[in-house]
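Troubleshooting log. The previous structure file for this entry was overwritten by mistake, so regenerating from the original sequence record. Sequence copied from the archived sheet and checked twice against the printout by T.R.
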Amino acid sequence: MQIEPTPYVLPYVAAAVISGALFVRLWSYRDRRGARGFLLDAAGIVLISVIYVFQLVSTTPGAKEFWWNLRFVPIPMMAAGYMLMAVEYTNHERYVTKPVALGIVATPAAMIGLVWTNDAHGLAYDYTIDAAANLLVPQFGPAYWVWAAAMVGYLCIGIYVLLQLSRRQRAFRRQAAILVGTITLVLFGEMVWWLGLVPIDPLPLTSTVKVAGFLFGVARFELLDIVPVARREIIENMRDAVFVVDRRGYVVDANDAGKRLVDESDPIRRPISEVFESEQLRQAAEGVDSGESSEVTMTVAGEQHHFDFRVDPLYDSTGARGGRLLVLRDVTPLKRREEELSILNRIVRHDIRNDMAVIEGRSELLADHVDPAGREHLEKIMQSSEHVVELTENVRTLMASVLAGETIETTPTDAVGILETQLSQARERFDDADFELDGELPDRCTVEANEMLSSVFTNLFNNAVQHNDEEACRVTVGVEKTSEAVRITVADNGPGIPPDRREELFGRGVKGLDSPGTGVGLYLVDTLVDHYGGSVSIGDNDPEGAAFTVELPLATPRQTTPQQ
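Regenerated output below.
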């Protein structure tokens, strides 16, 4: 192929180099939403810039025609890429179905077939050669204008959805302005060329400016980091019910959760007083929008539900009050958990403390009537009674903190020291059970806990013995220390626990204390371990029985001396 340098080629060489560099830079954003379409667009710009360079320096009519025909490949890439970028960026890609995608490809494919067979029918174009300037001057046929209209149509679809975005979401007006403004420059350049005001198609040049503007938006306005779809998708997929109310008190928007809550297929454009049946909720919605939460109750599907309700004011760009945002979060499971804790708290404060007071009083009366041989046993009874009373006070404090949503205060605590103490007491309580150690205990395992950690081990030991139906009850205790945590396993030789019942043993998500779990003990174990930042699990013991494993993270070094 013979070539002849021409001054016209220099801008297109620069466009090829710049667009190639911009494509490489854009590639680093390929995983962002909307970037794939623009990568297709940018790839087309690089390709058409190179094609124009070869077309301009070619000297024979056949070579010029070859490169002219080849330009019909990258231009559809650019138009479709821009449209797909805009569609994905604005969350409209659900409309790009397989039939639609085939339709997008059909017109460019048909045009490529027409241009390569143009000599036979002349429907696409005709041309003359300007020998002085070494330029191919086209005269467009009807097929070309149909194809050009389709390409402009692709761009107009992208422009339309971006303008809709800027109208709905003010925060993305700058991003939309960049995307629409740069493509408008490209269209203006094509119009100038079609009217014959310039001798050469400026498409590669204006398109390179478009990519540069896009990357400016990425750097300056976080064009690909903060995408508008995120806002809408988050709202639509929220479990919380969301309503937007205008200044007149009419609902102007609601997510799916909100529509399900009010059992209305379309609450939009209805006054808030008609949307909600609950008088309490209507009053709260029409009250002062302080931004603070309140609790309201509603009947949903025949059942009473509790909601955390928040009203926040909405303002427009001028700072004027534009309406209200209503958010309702279903907290019914939390309320049920509070009821469980309240019941447990009452049991601790009343029944257990009252019974232990009787035991303590009777033990003191027996002190003068017990001979020296039985005094040791009486002292053990009195010590255990005092410990239970102290324990009930700790549990009461714990439950009060949980109900109030407070964080339980913890200190560095030696888990092994507490384990040894509770193991010794368990051996005294259960004379007919055999408590064994699996290996040696580590020297010290300091965890973030408090004195209630003893209840964790006590309840696990009690559970291992009380639910064991073997004649010879055997409980094995093992401790494993790693660089990050300590694992304490309490295994028994009882009947074991089926996998489908293990989760419910801790009473998680079950209303009241009459759950199919084993009672308050394991519920307390789960609650305490969770607040200590650990976990408790149930597995199988070998060859039979159940194994409860408590894992607690080791405490970070402090100056405080660990509790024993």
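The chain has 18 helices and 14 strands. Archived copy saved in two places this time.
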